[in-house]
User: Fold this.
Amino acid sequence: MNIYPSGPTSVSVTSAVITGGNAAEDAATTANPLITGGIVRTATAPTTLVAGDAARDTMTSGAARVVYPYAVPEVSWNYAAALNGIVNTTTAVTVKAAAAAGIRNYITNIQVMSEALTTATELAIRDGAGGTVLWRIKIPTGGLSAAQFDFAVPLRGTAATLLEVVTLTASGAGAVYFNAQGFTAA
Assistant:
């Protein structure tokens, strides 16, 4: 490489930096940011991670990198509507029981449908028994065709607190059906 116009100057590189991890596949390992795989998780990730901490890629026990939205499949949950739905009541139904200390319940998707109702009502998702309303929809007397709601930003409950669904006004005749999917995480 000639950097001076008055004559040739050469520069040679005689060394290279080579990096590599120190753990074989299928071996227990401590933190090593050079691992190109990840760590197998079958439960919620450590709850002690804070801003600025290093974290490993998450893998399933089948050695597949987790690209599942939000969490590993093992901490996902589903709630299916009761056999006859929610009928003529203002009594709340627990959708997801309280998680362990420091762990929150999240809702990523819901499906709602109702038959024709005698009285219009609001359907609400609450954080805790009788708690803060996280989401609601008005259901008219004519009912509601099956509707899917996907939350790009999941509904986030308080740590160690149940999630419930409730019709805020007794609906008379006709049923409301509610399904939900989500996950648990810190």
In short: Residues 19-67 form one domain.
